[in-house]
Amino acid sequence: MKFLISMHINPAVLDALTEEEMAGIGEGHSRFMQALKDSGEFIMTQALVDPSQAAVVRVRNGQPVVTDGPFLEAKEYLGGFYLVDVQNKERAIELAAQIPDAAIEGLGLEVRQIMFSDGQLEA
To answer: Is the pTM of the predicted complex or chain greater than 0.90?
Structure first.
């Protein structure tokens, strides 16, 4: 079963962390990724730029309208994700709890099963 583990970022929370704490997060992600690879559960991970660097595209009257910045005004945003292939939802939740962000007050992880992938419904 494939699951997406989304990392939701609150920039105010990250700004309040020390350099040592930020380094610890990076090191924790490195260890987590290696453990996923070693277990064979790793598919991929990606980190996203800050929403201020995003573009929002909407089509109005058949024409694309592009605006800068985030889609929604929110204090939290999607910062990245892990895509994993695991036995069940419980394992995906167990893995999410190992991601360093889960232990930081004000940050959160969302675990969602993949429903459709590469033209195929997932089992």
So the answer is: no
